[in-house]
Specification:
This protein has about 280 residues and is α+β, with helices and mostly antiparallel strands. The chain has seven helices and six strands.
Amino acid sequence: MGDDGSNDPGVEEDQRKYNVGVISEWHQMGTDYRVFLTQLRPGDMIEFKRDGYCHWAVYIGEHAFAENTEADDLIPVLPCIVHRANPADNPENMNGMFSASKSMRKGLYGIGDVVVEPLRDVWRESGARINNGVDTTISPFPAQKIVERALCVVYGEDRQSYTPYNVLTNNCEHFVSWCRSGWSVSSQVARRMEQLIKLGMVAGAAVLPRPISIMGGLCLAGLQMMYEVRRSASSQSQNGFDFARDQLDDLSMPAVSFVPSDGQQGVEDQIMTSGGR
């Protein structure tokens, strides 16, 4: 699975990295839950395929999940993730209807809070896959450090705990990328921005104001006219130079005499430098 030092006995446990650069196939919880768990390693970035966007989380392994339990209840240990909940995330792709995920219950947890949840609650009906593709450009931290960074934010021990959710600058993908490598990167924001720029360029060309279009046409015509004038002037200069050169050649031509075919001296025609006869 692309482990980096995970099976090397010479690497300390707290320095081991797992699934470096791995991007797995998509899995569905109803059929692939156990298979997916065998592939997951602590520190993996999980991508959830929602309706029209993707949600991201950090897998932290099995974690004691004590929420909604009484004092005497046994505390379940479940495969859990840490993620930055956002106002629009919906694991069931139900266009904003109720969900068991904290991502949908903002009254209790606040918009943009980083929370621990069972993997099942966030996965639901979505596709899910390991996506550590960012490792190809930014080296990841060891798995243990990734998990520690995520939980520090959950427990309010890092400034990330107090930064509000922002879809462009501080979304769920920014958070998991920060946990894994220290860099807040969001590929889907970059892709969206690129698409918007391209659409803006096309729309701008389509609705370009008429006066600007005319001015652009006049500028092009003016450039063409200047080129023609310059070419004509150059041609005229060349013609004038050729004419002057021909005149100088005529003035400097030596006298020429004719000898009749019968061998007698004929009338000598001379072209004198003073003008000739």
